[in-house]
Each structure stands twice: as C-alpha cells, then as structure tokens.
Write a structure and sequence with these properties.
2 helices, rod-shaped
Length: 68
C-alpha cells in the first residue's frame, strides 16, 4: 500500500508527539532524514534526466536546422 505524502507527514507528527525518549527521537530523525535524502536524490535524478533529454533534443533540432 502506498501512502500519500500528507499521510507520511501526519505519521511523522504523530511519532514525534508520542515519543518522549531522546534516543528514539534521534533514531527516528536518522531514518526519516535518510528517507528524505533518498526521496530528494530520486527527484534530482528525474530532474536531471528531463534536462538531459531536453538538451539532446535541442542539439538534434539545431543540427537538423543547419542541414536544412
């Protein structure tokens, strides 16, 4: 089952509210932070892929115009 981002945010808030242990909070922060970094990396991948594909298309279009 996939959760929506707002559900994940609600879970983080509930975890934070329900936890009084500093060690549990540190462990939670570590794993949540790593998960957010993974999400960010995947977003960067898609952004870079889109940019590269756009640049390739622009280069091909420019070469085609030169030939015409």
């Amino acid at each position: 089952m996939n959760k929506r981002p707002e559900e994940i945010a609600e879970d983080i808030v509930e975890f934070t509210k329900s936890t009084d242990s500093q060690q549990e909070l540190k462990d939670g922060w570590r794993v949540i932070n790593n998960a957010v970094r993974y999400l960010s990396s995947k977003d960067d991948f898609f952004t870079s892929e889109r940019a590269v594909n756009r640049e390739i298309k622009e280069m091909k279009d420019a070469k085609k115009e030169e030939r015409d």
